[in-house]
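REQUEST FORM: STRUCTURE PREDICTION
Request ID: SP-0412
Submitted by: Lab K.M.
Chain count: 1
Length (residues): 302
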Amino acid sequence: MATLFYSCGTTANTTVSKLDGSLNAEVKEAPYTGLKRVVAIARFSNETEYAKGAFYDKENDPLGNQAQDILSAKLAARGKFILLERAEADKIQAEFEKKGAGQSGMAADYLIIGSLTEFGRKTTGEVGVFTRSKTQTVEAGVNLRLVDVATGQIIYSEEGKGQAETSSSTTLGFGGVQGYDETLSDKAISAAIEKLVDNIEKTCMDRPWQSVFLSYDNDAIVIAGGKKQNLSAGKVLAVYERGKKVKNPQTGAIVELPGTKVAEVTVVSTGGTTIADEYSIVNLTSGSVNASKLSNYIITEF
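STATUS: Completed
RESULT:
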């Protein structure tokens, strides 16, 4: 019996998947026209022991930075978020105070705290009479926590795992198996993060968009947020007076009760040149607001 070889040389295949076995796929969606949420990545740490030698620098960890860059890119690609850079020291309480004080600087609605919990790579191969093959595999695990800045509570936490592998083979001694594929790290981490980004998006978008008053006088009524958050002339927003704050005796946490709707405002125009200084001028179309206690109010969409 004769065996025919229809080709000789090197063949290679690369597969990227989540641990549930599903393959990554690009899904094109229509441009998002709703109000955008403001999100900051507080930190992304590497909790694994991978590549932590004698000269390891925790503040400049390659894998941690790599994971943070991938997460930022995936969030930006959704078109539903305004992303802010935040250093490790930018704590939740600082964001809470900034948001509550109604300052003009951009404060995040949500903080993301991430960590790389698993990372490993391996190489396997087989040698036959006429063939030789090699498979390179990288596995990664990522944990993400989403914190609501207004309450300081973790509203979402989950771990995702991803795997990327590439294989190559030679036949009849022609060609050669490829060297280590450095892109596998990106692909495995990206696969681990992909599902988590879907859940972060859903969690954020299920919660109402919010803003605050910046000023309220005879010249103009000004609120935070503008064109970059998809605010435009004619948009009608609701004004709520903050609810009473009570202490939960079981957890010690301060809980803010639901507020009361007291007014409506309509966007007249938007301004500002950057994300940090953009604003909207509005008209009060119904109800009333105490201009001396602007921090008592939250502005939200219907």
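NOTES: Residues 1-13, 101-105 have pLDDT under 50 and may be disordered.
Reviewed by: T.R.
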